Amino acid sequence: MMVTVEEPSPEAYSVPKETKRLLIEGIINNPLIAKSLPEEARQYVKNVRYVGSDAPSIPINWRFAESIASLKGLEATILNVLLVKKYGIEPQEAVINT
Question: What is the pLDDT of residue 81?
Fold first, then answer.
């Protein structure tokens, strides 16, 4: 099952939206990484929400904030898998301020 995310238009760049896109397309749906992730990761990634300013705070080509926040989203997703498997707790929402 592929997870989908809304594509931002070039005129309306948003750090939180780009971060969510990177988490889903660059990590969760990446075949090189997906094979190492628990199957539940695809289900629980929807519990990760990004907030913050749409405009990048440092005008450089690197997407530092998006990259780090995407990895934090992966961390939150895996923690939800562990919470469900080990403690039987429902997946928790993770809010990451970019």
Answer: 96
For the whole model, what pTM was predicted? Answer: 0.71
- Total residues found in the chain within this entry: 98
> Phi then psi for 36, rounded to 5 degrees?
-95, -5
Look at residues 11, 43, 51, 9 and name the one whose alpha carbon lies nearest to residue 24: 43
- List the one residue out of 55, 23, 40, 51 whose CA is nearest residue 89: 40
Rounded distance between C-alpha atoms, residue 5 and residue 90, angstroms: 23
Type of residue found at 62: W
Kindly state the tokens that stand for 75: 């961390």
In 1-98, where does DSSP find H-type helix?
15-21, 31-34, 40-44, 64-82
Q: Is 38 exposed, middle or buried (0-12, 13-18, 19+ CB in 10 A)?
A: middle
**Mean pLDDT, rounded, for 20-49:** 94
